[in-house]
Amino acid sequence: MDSTVMTLDRDAVVPVDPHLVYDLARDHPEVTTLAAAGIGGIERAADHGLVPLGLPLPRGRRDLVVPALRQAAILREICGQIDRAQRRDALLAQGRRVLEGWRTALVAGPDRTRVRAVMTGDLPWRGLPMPVRLQVTRPIDALELSDLGDDDLALRLDADPVLTTALDAALSRIAARLRDYAAAIEGPAAAGGGPDDDWTFAAFGERLARAARGHFDADDILARWDRDYDQWRRDRAEARGRDYVDRHFDFARFERLFPIARGLGRRLVLIIGPTNSGKTHRAIAALRAARDGVYLAPLRLLALEVAERLNAEGTPTTLLTGEEEVPVAGARHVASTIEMMDPERPVEVAVIDEVQMLADPARGWAWTAALLGVPAQTVLILGAPEVRPLIERVAADLGEPLEVIVLERLTPLTMLDRRLDWAEIVPGDALIAFSRREIHATRDALQARGLSVATVYGALAPTVRRREAARFVSGEADVVVATDAIGMGLNLPCRRVLFTALEKFDGTAVRPLSATEVRQIAGRAGRFGKVDAGEFGVVARGTPQALRRLLEQSDDRLRPTAPLAVRPSRAMMARLAQQIGTSDCLVLVDCFAGGRTAGSPYRVSDLSALRRLALRLDERRLTLAVRLDLLLAPIDQDEEVDMRLFTAILDALETQQTLPIGRVIPARLDGLDAAALEGLSRSCDLYYWAARRFPALLPDRGLVQARRDQVCQRLAALLASGARRREPPPQTGFRGAPRQHFGPRRRR
To answer: Which of 231, 389, 575, 580 is deepest in the core (most CB within 10 A)?
Structure first.
């Protein structure tokens, strides 16, 4: 590099690099360029009180100017900086020559006048393939070390108290973290391992060494290690958890998880027949005659109807659903939704209704658990004829005796040979739609023709559904528009059942109706003792030919070799968490999702909804017990109303702040439409469910029942009125195209 002799006065002659001068001068606050000062040339600088810097500068960069009155002072300051920079360069060269082999080195500092001292230390550790290398640094002004000899420089840096203290602290932190890892992995608190377990500290040490390679700052290494440890711990928990699930739960032999049922010597009675064949009547008679019993229903409404019927006929029966419990004094019978089946309470008679729901992709696991695990001496299994081969196979697998009772329909049922128009709808008809929007669109079309309409669909509370059904039964409503819930025990005296569509959205895709679904729904036409004969067909859309094809197709989901869906219970997940030492719900769900079922008559149910909820719960500071309770909360994660209240409940549990009902459900209902009231009804159910489990933080359990009654009354009145429902316009698809073009995919 070329250098120039720089002269400040007669006694000072300093060789200097022009580029160094330029760099240091540019950093001075009083030095500027001609362009920055707005001056066209150096000859005009004096007009602005500026003069050239007066120091050697590189060619093409000689445009630095300074205030004329401050030139001498600025030059002295810059020359001081140049002197320190030259001392710093000399010190770096001395360090490279002298400090080789010492634990401290000198490197360039943050600017041209300082150096950085770097002290290195190694920490060997048993289980690590190589020592952990750490470095600590501190900046030093070149003037502090520039006059030292070689030996003095080496000894001074090797004993530097700031560096020595920092290095000792860093090594101690690394050692402490390694001790913590070793204790957690191999100490007495480690969970889930075995003599052949490969998840040892030595195995983890390989991962630590890779993470530390090329990194020497203690904070950086610890952050990397902690991230790796969290992931490694999760991987270990999943591996041990899957192994534990396969060895101790063994979903391939799911029936063994119900020891009480296996020890009772159960007798299975399959009662099959089409709708309106008297299956439920027989089952209720058997329950009345039993010492104790349980009725397992597919719907809250059906469980409520059976409980009321048994209570009215002198058999005290408690109602139990996921949302509520209505105890009855002296009751030895329970009517519940099927998900509430208790495998620990033996009874004389159990009734499993609508067993063809074994094929349901979302809830089939509940029928599997009931079929295999309900602890009853006699198990009455009610269902469609198509389910017989599958139940016979299950009985053979269980080694339990099976009696089959085949019932015939009590009233004739015929299919209409042509599609009806809206003008042909008459009082006594039931129209079937498969979405809330279609329900209300059909309702509006019928009301426009002067017919009064009752509506029955899943989003309505059971009490509202019953009121709407009662309006149809009494004749207050001419026709009823319902979803496929009508096919599961909702008894209405319909003369005709008319399909407005022959496909439905099942949660993942739009698919054609199965033959079993068509028969269950169509069979509601005609009611023994009330309507002598029934008819079914299509209206507005679809054709009789398409309907007949659906009836004639086989339902592969109920074939004899179809695997039964299984899902872990809360107790299973709690036991697994204790065994593998984790409080992460996502790990527990993933362990069970990977359960081995190959070659068995079972398959693990789709746990994607549980997984989505587990992700939310793991983000919260909650105990495992609370997380597991919330993991099974009766919510629809796709409903904004449900998730808004669920988030409020999570906040209350996390902060330990009470959540009064007034903060989530308004007292005034004026001006709310049916959709808003339906959302409030679900919110009441969810609040009541949470209040049963966390009464200290959700104190208004009694008040929410009264609020729910108000909501239901308002909603029932609104549905009974002639007012048209105000639906928001459908969302558009890609680039504004109608949703039907870019909506859910269809299964053929």
So the answer is: 580
- Tell me the pLDDT band of 216, cut-offs 50, 70 and 90: very high
For 553-661, where are the alpha helices, taking DSSP H only? 570-580, 585-593, 608-618, 624-631, 640-655
Residues 6+ apart with CB under 8 A from 369: 258, 341, 343, 566, 567, 569
**Least reliable range by pLDDT among 16-25, 133-142, 277-286, 291-300:** 16-25
Burial class (CB in 10 A: 0-12, 13-18, 19+), 445: middle
599-652 residue pLDDT tens: 899 999 999 999 999 999 999 999 999 999 999 998 889 889 999 999 999 999
Nearest Cα to 498, choosing from 554, 423, 437, 555? Answer: 423
Give dist(CA 518, CA 502) in Å, integer.
9
CA distances from 717 to 249, 458, 561, 660 (A): 50, 18, 49, 27
Q: How far apart are CA 622 and CA 613, in angstroms?
A: 14
How many Å apart are CA 174 and CA 369, to the nearest integer?
50
Rounded to whole angstroms, the Cα distance separating 670 from 680 reads 13
Element (H, E) at 136: strand 132-141
**What would the two tokens of residue 67 be?**
């205030």
| Region label for 554, one of left (φ > 0), alpha (ψ between -120 and 50) or beta (otherwise) | beta
φ/ψ (deg, to 5) at 538 = -120, 155
CA distance 324 to 327: 10
Residue type, 290: A
Categorise residue 119: left if φ over 0, alpha if ψ from -120 to 50, beta otherwise. beta
Task: Give Cα 457 to chain centroid, integer Å.
Answer: 27
Nearest to 385 by CA among 479, 273, 463, 278: 273
SS3 (DSSP) at 603: strand
Considering the chain, what percentage of its residues have pLDDT values greater than 90?
Answer: 57
Residue whose token pair is 């994660």: 637
Long-range contacts of 571-574 (CB under 8 A, 24+ apart): 572/249, 572/257, 573/628, 573/631, 574/624, 574/625, 574/628
**3-class DSSP assignment, residue 239:** helix
Q: Are 607 and 592 in contact (CB under 8 A)?
A: yes
**Two structure tokens written together for 26:** 């540019």
Coil vs helix vs strand at 504: strand
- On whether the CB atoms of residues 480 and 439 are closer than 8 A, the answer is no
CA-derived radius of gyration, the chain = 40
pTM given for the model? 0.77
Sheet holding 402-406, edge to edge: 325-326, 317-320, 333-337, 293-297, 347-352, 376-383, 267-272, 402-406
What's the chain's length in residues? Answer: 748
Phi/psi of residue 475, each to 5°?
Answer: 95, 0
Contact 1, 69 (CB under 8 A): no
Region class of 594: left (phi > 0), else alpha (psi between -120 and 50), else beta:
alpha
CA 281, 286, 291: angle at the middle one, nearest 5?
Answer: 145
Give the number of other Cβ atoms within 10 Å of residue 159's Cβ: 10
Angle at alpha carbon of residue 736, lines to 733 and 738, rounded to 5°: 55
- Token pair listed for 264: 């009772």
Q: How many helices and strands in the chain, by DSSP H and E?
A: 24, 26
Say how far residue 649 (Cα) sits from the centre of its chain: 16
